[in-house]
Write a structure and sequence with these properties.
Shape: globular
Protein name: signal-recognition-particle GTPase
Distance between the termini: 19 Å
Order of helices and strands: HHHHEHEHEHEHEHEHEEHHHHHHHHH
Helix content: 40-55%
GO biological process, one term: SRP-dependent cotranslational protein targeting to membrane
EC number: 3.6.5.4
Bound molecules: guanosine-5'-diphosphate, magnesium ion
GO cellular component, one term: signal recognition particle
Keywords: GTP-binding, Hydrolase, Nucleotide-binding, Ribonucleoprotein, RNA-binding, Signal recognition particle
């Protein structure tokens, strides 16, 4: 997801991270690179223009050029503005009514039926009792596709294929009787740019769904705006962006909330029912900027490692973490499962290629920290050259590798502190250090 955008943005910030202050010309050059990276990622030019104008204004107002950690400060501003462009705070499903009715609409092939199954699974895991309905009078195969999905997931299913308004109303009544609290209604796709069939508007009028979700394919890029506009008369309450696992250049996620004026609620990241993620603008900005997804990582690690790890994650978020906290996280990681999925959530590690290389780097980092005394882990500044030699010997590494780990830690601390100065949306998660 967003590999090339992340790569280019990291390079831009890396160049700005030279020691010392930045001149206004250097900041301007940095902003130009960011602008080009966003445009290359297919972010709409109007969105890029507004985003950069706000970043520029804030970097003047907040005196980035006088800052001692200008790159980190600028990064914090870009992160906050990117999150704002994607809607600011995370938006949740409304799910009002008994049952709550969630209608999925969108162009053909955008992923509605697949998403209906994913959403049902998601809600089931949240303790809800979903009920899937296919409202597609034209294509019997569409109902079959959803019926198969529903039975695989063990979720109640009904067809509404003769007279959708009447049958969906009946399904809602059945759901109420059976104490199923969310009715998820799948609808037929339309050709690109075409309006939905009239019965879909009738469904909205008759059933008053609390959520009308427009499902759009991120691979379509800016074209998705025109497709989406055709659905506006239905009273869209939110977007679901699918196929973000593909080589989408990321532009859609960054542009669509602004251009369609609707928040993204979920993103699809694969074809399987579990490949759905709630969308959080702050976390997405972190990912795009290559900070990984600490909040997501903390959730996975907390499951694997319990309280100790959760406490560690909190210290990372607050910027008060020590090398001891890194060690706890590394160890939880080795218990938590598939390395590649975890790595994707870790800043700076997500985009590096060969698994073995990353794994050996993780092992090395662990060994180095393990060779330190508790005192050294808590107060790394006491580590002078003789201690470094001892640590290198103890961990089977070189002094240079010890230095590298220490400077990563220092850089990470500065980064987190720089970001801490930016106001973050509540629940926006924390950022992890750049570990490379
Ligand atoms: P619909 O016409 O809108 O109902 O679209 P479908 O749900 O039938 O999906 C169309 C195709 O897109 C199918 O092959 C799905 O497996 C695929 N698809 C849907 N969502 C995703 C996603 O998030 N990632 C990937 N890679 N494929 C997806
Ligand atoms: Mg379908």
């Amino acid at each position: 997801m967003f590999e090339s955008l992340t790569e280019r943005l990291s390079q831009a910030f890396q160049r700005l991270r030279a020691p010392g202050r930045l001149t206004p010309a250097e900041v301007e050059a940095g902003l130009r690179e960011i602008r080009q990276a966003l445009l290359a990622a297919d972010v709409h030019y109007g969105v890029v223009r507004d985003l950069l104008a706000r970043v520029e204004e804030r970097s003047v107002g907040e005196k980035v050029v006088e800052s001692l950690a200008p790159a980190e400060q600028l990064l914090g501003i870009v992160r906050a503005e990117m999150a704002a462009a994607m809607g600011g705070e995370a938006t949740k499903l409304r799910l009002a009514g008994r049952p709550a009715i969630v209608l999925l609409v969108g162009p053909a092939g955008s992923g509605k039926t697949t998403t209906a199954g994913k959403l049902a699974r998601h809600l089931l895991r949240k303790g809800r009792q979903p009920f899937l309905v296919c409202a597609d009078p034209q294509r019997p195969a569409a109902a079959e596709q959803l019926a198969t999905l529903a039975s695989r997931l063990g979720i109640a299913f009904a067809r509404a294929v003769e007279d959708p308004v009447v049958e969906v109303t009946q399904a809602a009544e059945r759901a109420r009787r059976e104490l199923r609290d969310v009715l998820i209604v799948d609808t037929p796709g339309t050709p690109p740019g075409a309006a939905p069939p009239p019965f879909v508007a009738d469904l909205v009028a008759a059933l008053e769904p609390s959520d009308v979700l427009l499902v759009l394919d991120a691979l379509v890029g800016q074209e998705a705006v025109r497709m989406g506009e055709a659905f506006a008369p239905l009273g869209i309450t939110g977007l679901i962006l699918t196929k973000l696992d593909g080589d989408a250049r990321g532009g859609a996620a960054l542009s669509l909330p602004t251009r369609l004026g609707e928040p993204v609620l979920f993103v699809g990241v694969g074809e399987k029912p579990e490949d759905l993620e709630p969308f959080d603008p702050g976390r997405m900005a972190d990912r795009i900027l290559g900070f990984g997804d600490l909040a997501g990582l903390a959730e996975v690690l907390a499951e694997a490692g319990g309280e100790e790890v959760a406490a560690t994650a909190a210290r990372v978020r607050e910027g008060t973490f020590t090398l001891e906290d890194f060690l706890i996280q590394f160890e939880a990681m080795s218990r938590a499962g598939p390395l590649d999925q975890l790595l994707a959530k870790i800043p700076g590690l997500g985009k590096v290629a060969p698994d073995e290389e990353v794994e050996s780097e993780l092992k090395r980092s662990r060994a180095i920290i393990q060779s330190m005394t508790v005192e050294e882990r808590r107060h790394p500044h006491i580590i002078g050259s003789s201690r470094k030699r001892r640590i290198a010997r103890g961990s089977g590494t070189t002094v240079q590798e010890v230095n590298q780990l220490l400077s990563q830690y220092e850089q990470a601390r500065r980064l987190v502190r720089g970001l801490g100065k930016q106001r973050r949306p509540p629940g926006g998660g924390g950022r992890v250090p750049v570990m490379r």
